[in-house]
Design a protein that fits this description.
By secondary structure, the protein is of the alpha/beta class. 59% of the residues lie in helices and 9% in strands. The chain folds into three domains: 125 residues, Rossmann fold (3-Layer(aba) Sandwich), CATH 3.40.50.300; 63 residues, Helicase, Ruva Protein, domain 3 (Orthogonal Bundle); 136 residues, Zinc Finger, Delta Prime, domain 3. Helix 6 crosses helix 7. The N terminus is likely disordered.
Length: 343
């Protein structure tokens, strides 16, 4: 019988007594690493391990249970995996609860899903295994993970440089690992990856991607109040839309908002130095509706408040990347402050 484990990832310690393991959440890389850790543990305890994978969309409960209950060749220990298990669990919750009360001793059932609805099944699983949430980490945790992951790619990466890479790409561990693998090929084995190499190979986040986010924010701030919504309220609504529907990471959205305020400050300094709007637009690579929105907001931005706004959003951006404060909360607060400054 397995030792009871917490559902909190940080407190979970996989061991060879676990007969049911749930890996759920959006971060595929964490699921992969936890599964490999489980496999290594079982191989150490039982010798060679047989892995059988099912996809919930084309596999039934009976098929999964038959595989679990049958012995493998040479009585190998089995890891029976069900991917995309959301609907599988929803349709078979009672049967899975009964199985958890008396699981086989020669195999572990691994359920991998994007979502997990808590219930009595959790209690049954915790008696014989664990549930591990695999969501996208904070920027600080992602940077720490990168430093450790660099060893697997036979290179070195310090925390500050890792934070730069997270700032460029976001907190998706699969993407970060892919970029790290690419960077590791450009240095000698065991050598250190520096920020200069990241600038050359990874670069800043796409200018077009940044402008797409910034244009959406500009549009919201320029639309004025209607149906009881202030411009700040519309900007907050747009931020949630970008994160929830457009799959933009909230930390990256905050970075792009900070970059927008930086551009506005630069444009104010250019105007103060006598540059015409056409020259400002050319330097900022603005045209069409984007130029109109930017210039409209520039005319409304008080020069005596622009610097303070930039300081505030830069601090919010830095705080979110270092784990101080919630990026979405910082975005919401800043949108409100910016809207007030424009009125």
């Amino acid at each position: 019988m397995a030792k009871r484990s917490s559902t909190k990832s940080a407190a979970v310690e996989l061991n060879d007594t676990m007969r049911m393991v749930v890996l759920y959440g959006s971060e595929m890389m964490l699921k992969r690493q936890y599964f490999q850790q489980l496999r290594d543990i079982m191989e150490k305890a039982h010798g060679e391990v047989q892995t059988i994978q099912f996809n919930a969309s084309d596999s039934g409960l009976a098929e999964v249970f038959d595989e679990l209950r049958s012995y493998g060749l040479m009585q190998q220990y089995k890891l029976v995996v069900v991917d995309e298990a959301d609907e599988f669990v929803k349709d078979n919750r009672d049967a899975l609860t009964r199985y958890a009360e008396n699981p086989v001793d020669h195999g572990t059932l691994v359920l991998r899903s994007g979502k997990w609805n808590k219930g009595n099944l959790d209690k049954a699983i915790n008696k014989v295994g664990c549930l591990i949430k695999c969501d996208a980490p904070t920027p600080a945790v992602a940077a720490t993970w990168l430093v450790s992951q660099a060893k697997n790619h036979k290179c070195k990466l310090d925390k500050a440089t890792a934070q730069v890479l997270v700032g460029r790409i976001g907190c998706d561990l699969m993407r970060l690992d892919a970029e790290l693998a690419k960077l590791s090929l450009l240095v000698e084995p065991g050598a250190k990856i520096d920020e200069q190499l990241i600038d050359q190979v990874v670069g800043r986040s796409s200018d077009e991607q940044a402008w797409a986010v910034q244009e959406a924010i500009l549009q919201a701030l320029s639309s004025g109040s209607s149906l009881g919504k202030t411009a700040g309220g519309k900007a907050i609504e747009k931020v949630h839309e970008l994160v929830d529907l457009s799959n933009q990471h909230e930390v990256l959205v905050l970075y792009f908002v900070a970059d927008l305020i930086r551009k506005l400050n630069m444009a104010l300094q250019m105007r103060k130095a006598g540059a015409a709007d056409a020259e400002i637009a050319r330097q900022m690579k603005l045209w069409g509706a984007r130029q109109t929105l930017f210039m409209s907001l520039l005319r409304r931005l008080p020069e005596n408040r622009a610097g303070a706004l930039l300081d505030r959003v830069v601090k919010a951006d830095a705080g979110s990347k270092s784990g101080l404060g919630n990026a979405m909360r910082n975005l919401e607060c800043f949108c409100t402050i910016l809207s007030d400054a424009l009125n």
